[in-house]
User: Fold CDP-alcohol phosphatidyltransferase from Streptomyces mangrovisoli.
Amino acid sequence: MVLNNTYDARPVQQETAVGAGVQILLLALLGSAIGMGPAGWVTGLVFAVATWAVLSRALHRTRPRSFGPANRVTLGRATLVGGVTALVADSFESSPPVSLLVGLTAVALILDGVDGKVARATGTSTALGARFDMEVDAFLILVLSVYVSTQLGPWVLLIGTMRYVFVAAARVWPWLNGELPHSMARKTVAALQGICLLLAGAQLLPQAANLAVVLAALGSLVWSFGRDVLWLWRHGSAPVAEAEPVREDSRPVRELELTHS
Assistant:
């Protein structure tokens, strides 16, 4: 109780404000470099404000003593995802350089393997950090699927929306909230989605090859989700007991492990 009464949110909240500022700076750099249109600007700014608001609310609720080095890496990655989001939105009005979009996405995907290692190395792993990391990853996959869908068709959106459909379904059918066994296959499939979408979006391969790559990614994702749903249906049809204390990380393993490395 003493810690809660003396908690000072200002240092932690200042870091989220700095992140929003860096996001706006990145948008300004992109705008000056490629002449980004209104769609890119508006989408990028909405992303910056939404990220700041949601993260600030989560930090206020969990009251961490510090933001932590791993969360700083994830926040930097979120800034890159905001840039990618703005470029994808701008692509509906103009043709931003593919190399710029690919570069930002590649760095964001590479950093996905950094924040988890930093958290473990510094002993700062938290449920909030894992959730933050997962949400950034999932949103990047969604944005990439939107971009690639303009080249290959709307069916590609299944890759980006499948995780969100699963989360929504878990609210309707509580048995989907059961705990899943740890699976490296699940993590591998999740990681492959970003790589395959980036490869297709880079337009380095023939159209037929891009189609095959994305179809393989979608097929592996359907297999992964299908396997987990079947396991939950057979073994996890009962929701977590209400008598147990609710923890910050009491959410499906499928949700936490989807993109967290």
